[in-house]
Design brief:
- Two copies of one chain form a homodimer.
- Chain A is α/β, with parallel strands linked by helices.
- Chain A has 14 helices and eleven strands.
- The first copy, chain A, has two domains: 4-122 and 214-236, Peroxisomal Thiolase, Chain A, domain 1 (3-Layer(aba) Sandwich); 133-212 and 239-387, Thiolase/Chalcone synthase (Peroxisomal Thiolase, Chain A, domain 1, 3-Layer(aba) Sandwich).
- Chain A is globular.
- At the A-B interface, helix 3, strand 3, helix 4, strand 8 and helix 10 of A face helix 3, strand 3, helix 4, strand 8 and helix 10 of B.
- Strand 3 of chain A pairs antiparallel with strand 3 (80-84) of chain B, so a sheet runs across the interface.
């Protein structure tokens, strides 16, 4: 199998984008990535697009074909494939794009992710998102994602002594990072008190422990490393791309303070890349709720199981910490257009490894990691990237 | 890239299966395919599952993870990926599975397709299916799939002299074949008069010109040819696997009496397989409406453009004809659980090439083809298989 590189990135602003349609978001992210890579439309051999519930958010399935039409490349008749794995749809699109290029099947592949979530009324978005859990055995009985992650938080607090203040510190850190990211949905600082004083959504999670409902799209251009130099000098190599799955239902999971699929994906990714957790300079992890980031940094081996809250409190994951996490603002502050998130994470890490992250730049970052999760851990995707 | 074979197949009965849930359908098809291949669950490296609108039909996204849990293989933490391309979701799942094995990324891959369409009320299924067309520019203004294919039929009748009777003959043939298939939704013969006397759905298409709303699932096991013999002697090689796309919207298409994506996919598939249309012994094509089969046999090069109606009338595509088409009964009589269809087509061709098709066996069939279409032609997937 061939070595694969990211040679271009692009994304829209994230937020409540009332003035932009799904197809406009797809077009904007895709065009930016194509321009960034210096390729022509005719160079593209295939497209993969992640979308979680386009059928319910905008009444549109078959968004692979839509993406091809939006790109104006219909006469090429190249394959354009939608993949779906709930909030890991973008990460899975990256993994399928990686396989397609590594295999030799295709050379230049566009990977995209998009979701337009604000076109449905109030609580309907939470109901749609609950279709990422087990509909028959969880959602029907009232379980929502804030509820499922609240169970993880309670378990973590009980067994490991994690505090509400430590959870809040994840949000405070990510809002600080978001304030430095012009594309983030929330660009204002918040305090621990703000989080603890915000309304309870599902105890112990407050409103400011939760990622928001967001519109947005992101794209990345993949190419074999040996062809990449034809187009650009800004080559970021994909050292590892691993997708792992687990039970759909949270209640069937073997443990509640960890996502075994993420642990498995991380372990395989480190092996594939030949690196250790301590080699990672910067990481984007799936902080759909504050507890999710604490569990993620443990599952990824940055800290021991149970020490994630304490490590956050001590600044390990801050922008100037030992391993900066969610420099983009994460899902919490940058926003979480579910199908786009996995590809947006790749955008941030590529910017960091190119040294283009401006005020949130991690100095000397050469190896970065992304961690994208679907549902309560039914799917996890880990990528490790390196500047070469 | 490695040569890939289908080493196992399985499918449920197709029909209005009130007593079976989506997950039961997935389990049944998967287990049958695993038993057929003679593999163990632990041998499986990855899964791909096609589903068109599970979010709207059953309120469940993230069905890759669901399939892994249903299979009881969560402890393997293998990747299980849903792909979606409207009614071509099953064909696209096959193509992604093919790439995954051919690449060397994975050895044993389970490909599945499933849809549970009868759990929604009456007209809602047609509305959900319309999400495979362009929601903003077609469906919002009242276009349904019977309407879009009726436009193709009108165009074909006007320009090529195709008659309503010839359209009806497609349904008559496919119902005859369906009467020989114990898994078909409709197992009774119908006459040309039955079709012409059935209610108009979208002129000139009558009810019996249309494929039905169906529940069902199908699966296939893929492996590299050189590993396949470890498990089975019944090896069917995939000589070609090609996915092509086009505009989502029908009105943007370059012509109305052909699906350019299907023409493109077929051309590339013939090249990849090193065969001509006249080498194909048996084919399953995407007859979502009778006109679709006529256009398909032209697009695949079995007959010249415009001659599909006449060829059907003359028996070219009958079970005892020169190139038997839709021996399973096709989408029309076997049924059309949209996400499953592409994989069900593979099931039929594998049975034919193994000589296991019983009363509908095409004698001496060694090369078979499948043609799976999404929407009004936004996606097309062509596979060519050969008994070795």
């Amino acid at each position: 199998m061939r070595e694969v590189a990211v040679i271009g990135i692009g994304m829209t602003e994230f937020g409540e984008l009332w003035q932009k349609s799904f197809r406009e978001l797809v077009a904007e992210a895709g065009v930016k990535a194509i321009l960034d890579a210096g390729i022509e439309g005719e160079d593209i051999d295939a497209m993969y697009i992640g979308g979680m519930s386009t059928g319910r958010f905008i009444g549109q399935e078959h968004v692979g074909s839509l993406a091809l039409e939006v790109a104006g490349l219909e006469d090429l008749h190249i394959p354009a494939t939608r993949v779906e794995a709930a909030c890991a749809s973008g990460g899975v699109a990256m993994h399928q794009g990686y396989i397609a290029v590594a295999s030799g099947m295709y050379d230049i592949v566009v990977v995209g992710g998009a979701e337009k979530m604000t076109d449905v009324v109030g609580g309907e978005a939470t109901n749609i998102l609950a279709s990422a859990a087990d509909r028959e055995w969880e959602s029907f009985f009232g379980a929502t994602f804030p509820g499922l992650y609240a169970l993880m938080a309670r378990y973590h607090m009980h067994h490991h002594g994690t505090t509400q203040e430590q959870l809040a510190m994840v949000a405070v850190k990510n809002h600080h990072n978001g304030s430095l990211n012009p594309k983030a949905q929330f660009r204002r600082e918040i305090s621990v008190e703000d989080v603890l004083n915000s309304p309870i959504v599902a105890e112990p999670l407050h409103l400011l422990d939760c990622s928001p409902i967001t519109d947005g799209a992101a794209a990345a251009i993949l190419a074999p490393v040996d062809i990449a130099r034809k187009y650009t000098d800004k080559i970021i190599k994909i050292k590892a791309s691993v997708q792992a799955c687990d039970t759909l239902s949270f209640h069937s999971r073997s443990r509640f303070d960890s996502l075994p699929a993420a642990v498995h994906a991380a372990k395989k990714a480190y092996e594939m890349a030949g690196v250790k957790p301590s080699d990672i300079d910067v990481a984007e992890v799936h902080d759909c709720f504050t507890i999710a980031e604490i569990i993620a940094i443990e599952d990824l081996g940055f800290v021991e199981k149970g020490k994630g809250g304490k490590a956050t409190e001590e600044g390990l994951t801050a922008l100037d910490g030992q391993i900066p996490v969610n420099t983009s603002g994460g899902l919490k502050a940058k926003g979480h257009p579910v199908g786009a998130t996995g590809v947006a994470q790749i955008n941030e890490i590529v910017m960091q490894l190119r040294g283009e992250a401006d005020k949130r730049q991690v100095k000397g970052a050469t190896i970065g990691l992304t961690h994208n999760v679907g549902g309560s851990g039914g799917t996890a995707v880990v990528h490790i990237l390196e500047a070469i």
